Amino acid sequence: MRGVNRVMLIGNLGKDPDLQVLDGNIGVAKFPLATTETYKDRNGKLVSQTEWHTVVLWRGLADLAQKYLHKGSLIYVEGRLRTRSWEDKEGNKKFATEVVGDNLIMLDKRADGHSGNHPDSTEGYGGDDAPPMIDPTENMPY
Fold it and tell me: What pTM did the predictor assign?
């Protein structure tokens, strides 16, 4: 049986995307994304819990992020988890788990009352300019 490695997040950017251009003119953007859950504890008090995720976007999505996203932007991102490892200067093994995005939808409300992507579209952006796989404004199956 094959495994499934899919991640769907809706959250806010913690800082502006950092765009780097690699050999072959390949763009890669990286930024932190905050997702916050709110629940009531045993005493009925509202509690918020924030998780931080590192999101990595490649090629066209990286360019899109650099052009339109900024600290605080609300986005839907879909992709897969990837864990990397390396050794630091002291020889200690380090790990980082990242979300490699292949679908992105901008969810910020615009000043003119429209939502979605620029300029007037509500379409998502896939890794190969594919249509979005899921519309987060509709009811999800769970």
Answer: 0.73
